[in-house]
Every structure is written in C-alpha cells, then in structure tokens.
Amino acid sequence: MDKQDPITLDALFAALADPTRRAVVAQLAEGPAPVSELAAPHDMALPSFLKHLDRLEKAGLVRSEKTGRVRVCTFHPEALQAVETWIDRQRRIWTGRLDRLDRLAQSLADQSPSKPPETS
Amino acid sequence: MDKQDPITLDALFAALADPTRRAVVAQLAEGPAPVSELAAPHDMALPSFLKHLDRLEKAGLVRSEKTGRVRVCTFHPEALQAVETWIDRQRRIWTGRLDRLDRLAQSLADQSPSKPPETS
DNA sequence: GTCTTGCTTATCCATGTGGCTAAGTATTTC
DNA sequence: GAAATACTTAGCCACATGGATAAGCAAGAC
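Predict the joint structure of the above. Result:
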C-alpha cells in the first residue's frame, strides 16, 4: 500500500517538462503547502491540476500527506540529484574529450612542423 | 531559413525525458557522429529515429550539418546550462529556507525557555 | 548510366497527456 | 444534522508522441 515508485530519469525529466509542474515545484521550494493553495495560481479545474501533482509525486519530487480533509505537499529536492548527476556526466565526457583534443593539438604544435606526431 | 528556435525549458526537459534521446546525447558527448552511426544501436526504423534527433535539435542540444549525403550531428552542452540553472535555483530556495528555519529554531533554543520568542 | 547508400517526406496508427465536467466522499463548521 | 470545504473518482475529448511502412531523392561508387 505504501508502494513507492523508483525514481527514474524518464519520470523526472517528463515531470519537469511542463510549466505548470515547474511552477508547483518553485512554489513548494518556498515551503510545504496544501493542494488548494498550490492550485490557486493555475487557471484550471482541480482534477486537471491534481494530475500534475500526481506526476510530481510519481517522479519523487513531491510527497504529500493528508490530515483531516487537507492534503499538504512537500518538496523533495533529493530527487533532482539524479538529474544533475546525469547532466554532469555528459558534460564531463564532452569536455574531457575536448581537453584531449586540445592536448593533442598542442603537442602537434610543439613539435617541429616537419616531424609527424608520436603516437606512443 | 536559418531559423533557430529559442531554447526553452519545456523543450529541453521533454527532449531528455526519453531514453533513446538520452542515449543519443550520451553517444554524441563522445564526439560528433553521422545519423546512421547514431541510429545503429537503436532498434527502430530510421524515420522514427530521425524524429528523436529532430527533438534534440529543436531543444538546442544537438546541431547537425549535411555534407554530401551524410548528416553529421554535434552535441551542444551549453543548452544544458538552462536546465542546471533552473534546478540550482529551486534547490537554493529550498535550502535557504531550511537554513532560516534552523537559525530560528536555534535562537528559540538560546532564549530562556520561559520567554516567548521576539518577533521583531 | 545504373546501383547503392544515406537520408527525407508522407502517411498512418496506438497510446499518452492535458484539459474538461459531473458526481462522490470525508471533514469541518454552524 | 445540514451545509460548506477540500479533495477524489470516473469518464470524456482533442491533440501530441513514439512507433511503423512506403516511396522519393541526391550523392557516390562502379
């Protein structure tokens, strides 16, 4: 019953790909809030809005708990770690590659132009 | 003709929300590659694959140029900056808020337990 | 010149997504 | 207990998305 979906990059990126949902995250970053308060700024019916909240929860970005008739939502920034890790890795690979190219070019330039480069 | 879409968070997050497209980005991070080479690892028809490439280009993550009959694609990591900036901001807001709560709790604890907290 | 290669364009189809309304349920409040 | 509040559930609809096939086309290879 307390089933918790594993946090996947698919769900995370998809959750953040919508302006309404990003706005909710931004609002929750300021502090926890009940559903009605989160929904207020968005010009749409409650059920539509709830679907957005659902996707944020499924992505692991938000958790919520119901007390009485009010559901309070909380931001869980740890979920963003997976995104940043992925991005960092890609950038690292790319810049690492550029660095190697750079050093190669440098070593070519350093040698007397007539000699071919050492490949050891 | 040389119209370049503005890089939006919507397009970026959506582009990265698909495993095929993330794999392409990962592959391109290792260095530029022609379409056929990028498509090879993915078990789908070329036109289907091209749609993925398209979305990566529209998002600004990839650019491509055709020489002869071959189209070579290049990774453009600058596009990822927008994503990281957004994520950083949300986290900063959240942790900033936690810090303030922390200081408040600290100052409450520092006062003699009988006195109510100053609200100035 | 014909053949092959490497895309490209045009459709099509199933499913997912983002919106809606209508009606239901569980707390408070009066 | 009746009424208002705060969601919930169910179902519908339009359009986007991820896949497919079929046919076209320009550049190289032979």
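Chain A has five helices and three strands.
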